Amino acid sequence: RLLTVATVTQCDKDQSLNGCPIRCESVDISGHGLQFRSDIQLQAGTLLSISIGFNPKETYSVEAKVRWSKLENGEPTVGVQLLEDKECDLEGWLELLRTYLEQKKVE
After folding, report:
1. Could you say which of 7, 46, 71, 72 would form a disulfide bridge with 66 (CB–CB 3.0 to 4.6 Å)?
2. 13: which DSSP letter?
């Protein structure tokens, strides 16, 4: 199961969200993006800092930009693009994801 914790780092349309943690329940993952259910509707362009991993002892910090947000069954669903940044560990996340997917193929 994917563990995801996000914090809004920059929201130009609603600056009161800056610094706020948000609930994330992952729906879909790829190497360079995530789709998750959230407790709040986020605007496209909002920047997030995300801790992500399959194990609480092995998480990676990545930066992401909201590409879209919509209501699905009355619940906010968000699609983000993971950003390459010197300060984050996108390469570590990609390696973990590759390993995880390879193990799933074997099962």
Report:
1. 46
2. S
Among 92, 76, 99, 94, which residue's Cα sits nearest to residue 25? 76
Q: Are 47 and 64 in contact (CB under 8 A)?
A: yes
Dihedral, CA of residue 57, residue 63, residue 66 and residue 71, to nearest 10: 10
Instruction: Give this prediction's pTM.
Output: 0.83
pLDDT in tens, 53-92: 887 888 888 899 999 999 999 999 999 999 887 677 888 8
**Helix (H) or strand (E) segment spanning residue 30:** strand 24-30
Written as one string, the DSSP assignment of 50-100 is: EEEEEETTEEEEEEEEEEEEEEETTEEEEEEEEE--TTS-HHHHHHHHHHH
CB distance 29 to 82 below 8 Å: no
- For the chain, the residue count is 107
- What is the distance between the alpha carbons of residues 8 and 97, in angstroms, rounded to a whole number? 23
